[in-house]
Amino acid sequence: MLKIERIISVFIVAVLLTSCSEYQKVLNKGKTEDKYKMATELFEQGKYNKAIVLFEKVIPFYEKKPQMERIQYMVAQANYNSKSYSLAAYYFNRFIANYPSSSKIEEATFLTAHSYYLAAPKYSRDQRDTHKALEAFQGFIDKYPTGEKALEANNYFDELTLRLEKKSFEIAKQYYHVEDYTAAIVAFENFLQDNIGTSLKEEALYYKFMASNDLAVKSVLYKKEKRLNDAVLAYDKFKKSFPNSDKMEALNSIYEDLEKELQQTKELIGNITTKNTKNNGL
Fold this sequence. Notes:
- This protein has helices spanning 2-29, 32-44, 48-58, 67-81, 85-98, 105-119, 128-143, 150-177, 181-194, 201-217, 221-241, 248-281.
- By secondary structure, it is mostly helical.
- The chain folds into three domains: 27-95, Serine Threonine Protein Phosphatase 5, Tetratricopeptide repeat, CATH 1.25.40; 106-178; 180-274, Tetratricopeptide repeat domain (Serine Threonine Protein Phosphatase 5, Tetratricopeptide repeat, Alpha Horseshoe), CATH 1.25.40.
- α4 packs antiparallel against α5, α8 (150-177) packs antiparallel against α9 and α9 packs antiparallel against α10 (201-217).
- The radius of gyration is 32 Å and the shape is rod-shaped.
- The N and C termini lie far apart (117 Å).
């Protein structure tokens, strides 16, 4: 039994060596036609990296020839299938530009957008590829609104939009956590204006109120009354928008303290004003 297994192992190694030897032979000394044929076979076998190397060798010889359309598409698809998504997007874009009338154009347009989508990192990192994917998916949806991939494209578009919303939201929240309350208030206000209808509206209004409250109670006297009034307005906005929120109980308690602080501030300012008036009269 062990002898048979050893023979099979030797046979497999021999086949692999022969295969590698044949590949190297065609790669280094083969004719253009042989390289093209082997590249196509390797592509169909799912050996994309080897196929790409051979395709790159033959591309200069097939410029402006009918085979070039197929080669460009297979290069883009091979990069996509081997998870080289940035390169895939680049080659799909080239294919679209060079062959706008191809029967593969709709598929290539979708795969361009999907390549950017797969290349894009999670929301906490640089989102340049996310923006590219959004633009590409929007272009696909506009061009093929009833296409086979239209629904899928719309779903990806919504997902990416939420990803950017989360990025913007987390930046604003970070300002709050480092106690840069003025920047947090501005960032949350911009977030709400830029993302009307966002699912994060409740959280954004909550943090905007908390930042407004914390800024107000820590302010110097001459800025305090206005900031306390701004915090009251932020509370009213949250309450009006989400009256049944599970955060209301905690916010109501903060609001009561806020009202007391506002009243005390007005009284203090009034007393100081009265004292100054009397002193000026003397």
